[in-house]
Amino acid sequence: MRKRLFSIASLLLVGFASQAQEVKFEEYDLDNGLHVILHQDNSAPIITTAVMYHVGAKDENPERTGFAHFFEHLLFEGTKNIERGQWFKIVSSNGGSNNANTTDDRTYYYEVFPSNNLQLGLWMESERMLHPVINQIGVDTQNEVVKEEKRLRVDNQPYGHLLEEIKKNMFKKHPYKGTTIGKMEHLDAATLDEFMAFNKKFYVPNNATLVVAGDFKTAETKKMIKDYFATIPRGKEIERNFPKEDPIMEQFRAKAYDQNIQIPMVIASYRTPSFKTRDARVLDMISSYLSSGKSSKLYKRLVDDKKMALAAQAVNISQEDYGTYAVLALPLGEVTLDALIAEMDDEIKKIQTELISEKDYQKLQNKFENNFVNSNASVQGIANSLARYNVLYGDTNLINNEIDIYRSITREEIKKVANKYLQSNQRLILEYLPAEKTQEKK
C-alpha cells in the first residue's frame, strides 16, 4: 500500500510540473541584433527588466583578467543621463531593486519594479547599453570595490581559493583556467582605453538578450523597447575560437595551501562536457544521487555510517564549453585523505557496475521535478531562466522542456555516463591543505 501511495504521489508531481509550469513567452529580434523575450504574467503588479550579455571571464585577454566581473560593477557608475552615484538611488526611490552577477560565460543585469515603472527599467538598461560613462574616476572607484570583494569573499574566506585551484589544474589551455574575479594586478595595469575597448566590443545589442517579465501590455511594451533600444548601434560580430583541452589520460596530483583553514580537504576532479549536452544532465543526476541531502550515498556512508568525514559532496560544475565534476570530503580525526578517496571511489564504482535502485531513481526524478517547479516559481526566476537558456543554450524553450530531458534519463544511462567520465585515470587528486602544514598525513 505504501509503495502504491508513493507511486501516486510521484505521478501527481509529474502532472503538476508538466501542466502548471508551462512558461509562455514571445521572442523576436531588433534590426541591431538585440534579442527580445517577453513573458506576460498579470497576476501581480510586478515587472522584471533584465539584460544578459554573452560575455564572461573566458572572453578576456589573459593578461587582463577580471574585466567581465569588473564591468558588472563599472556599468552601475552612471551614464550620459544618469549622474554618477545615482543609479541605485533612482531604483530604490521608485520602489525597485536591482543587481548583477557574472560567470565565466555571461553577465546578467536586472531590475524589479512595480509594473508602473516598466518604462524606467527599460530606459535605464538602454542607458547602460548606449551611454555608459567610463572614466578614470569610475575605474579607480570600482577597482577598490573589487579588491575589497576579493579580500572578503576569496582571500579571507575558508576554502576561498578551492575552485581557483581546481580550475588552474584542470585547464591548461582554455580560459576556464582563470578565475571570474581575475587578478588584481591585471586590473591595476589596465588603461582606460582598454576598458573602453572591452565595453565597445561586448556590451552591444547583438551580444545581448533583453527580457521583460511580469505585468505589462504587449503593444505598449514593444513600442517602448523599440524607442529605447532600436537606435543603439550594432557592434562588430564576436568570434570565439577558444583552444581545446587535451584529454586527461592518467591521474595526476596537486597540492594547495590555505591559511584560513585548519581541516584539510581532498578533491577528485574530472573534466566533463558542456552543460548543453545530455551527458552533463546525467552527471547532474549522479551528483544529486551521491550527495544531495543527508540520505544521499556519500553523506550516509562517510559521515553517518563510517564516521570518516565531517562532510562529503559531489558537484557537477557545468559550463558552456566544458564542465568539471568534483567529489570532495573533509576528514574526521585521524582519517587520511587517501582513505577518503578510496571510499569515494568505491561508491562511484557501485554506480558504474550496478543499476541504481528503482526507489533511488524515482527519488532523483522527484528532486528534479521539484527543482524545476521552484526555478519557475517567480517572475524574477523566470526572467533569469529565459535569458540564460537563450544566451547560453541557444534554445529559450528549454525553460519548458529541459525537464523532459531529465525525465527521459534512464538508470542504464546513469551507469554508462559514470563509466564514461568518472574513471580514476581521467582525474586530478587535489589535496587542499592548511597553510601552516607543509606535509599532510596520507
TrEMBL record:
One of its GO terms (molecular function) is metallopeptidase activity. Keywords: Hydrolase, Metalloprotease, Protease, Signal, Zinc. Residues 190-367 form the Peptidase M16 C-terminal domain. GO terms for biological process: proteolysis. Its EC number is 3.4.24.-. Transmembrane segments: none annotated. Residues 36-181 form the Peptidase M16 N-terminal domain. It comes from the Bacteria. InterPro entries: Metalloenz_LuxS/M16 (IPR011249), Pept_M16_N (IPR011765), Peptidase_M16 (IPR050626), Peptidase_M16_C (IPR007863). Residues 1-20 form the signal peptide. The keyword Nucleotide-binding does not apply. The keyword Protease applies. Belongs to the peptidase M16 family. This is Putative zinc protease.
